[in-house]
Amino acid sequence: MKYVYAQYSVNEVDYFLKFLTDNLPKYKLSELTFGMCADLPSISGAHPLSVEYGNAMNVGENGEFTSILPAIGVELMDDVEPAQQLLGAGQRSFEVTDDYLSSIESLTLRSRFRNGVLMADSVLKGLQAAKLDKGGEALWGKMDKFLQQQTVAISIWSNHIDVTRNVYLVLRNILKEAKRDLSSQGVKNVNVTGQVALYNFDFGYTLFGAEFNISLLNVHDNISVDSDIGTIKHVDESAIPVDGTDQNKFKPLKA
Prior knowledge:
Strand content: 25-35%
Number of domains: 1
Distance between the termini: 29 Å
Number of strands: 8
Radius of gyration: 22 Å
Oligomer: single chain
Structural class: alpha+beta
């Protein structure tokens, strides 16, 4: 029986949504914006103005709608393979361990996505059953490693220019912290660029925006586990960490 799933160094959008949510309140935005922005403004995986447009289309009896601004949006904009990527260069075999399956089982499906593990519950149960059927024998899988060049856009919009500017300055600092954190999770070539002085007039008044583009090199692993395989004649030893850690894991999984 074959089972397939995938792992990423990070789930790029979920990573930034969580990192911003965890770090923004530390800067006390309500003070820095003179009470015009909450310490934790609205953050979602969509462009703030697209959500604002949706709210504007559902006006109340008095013709008014509930605004989400000031708001921040996180979106994956570009997702391409590097031009020099060699097919099969990162392929190797590995053993599916009980510890690894237990670490996955300890997470909800949502938390798995946040940790970059794209594994359905039915696949997890199948792997656990296959491991049990093996008894003391090893359960082998094949991992095919690819690099993915991605660009994540983080947008800031508000109806006051000072709010947008101050939130931009705070996010600029937080994204510098994110660069160091991402490097510890196997993400490479993280580069942050910012664009300010964006404007929108579609609501009948001026909205002020700014945007960051974060380019990064993410690691994607396509994984296939075949419970019918009894032995592996060759394991790429160069792919096994010299410190003896479980090569199935990229990082400690968090709930």
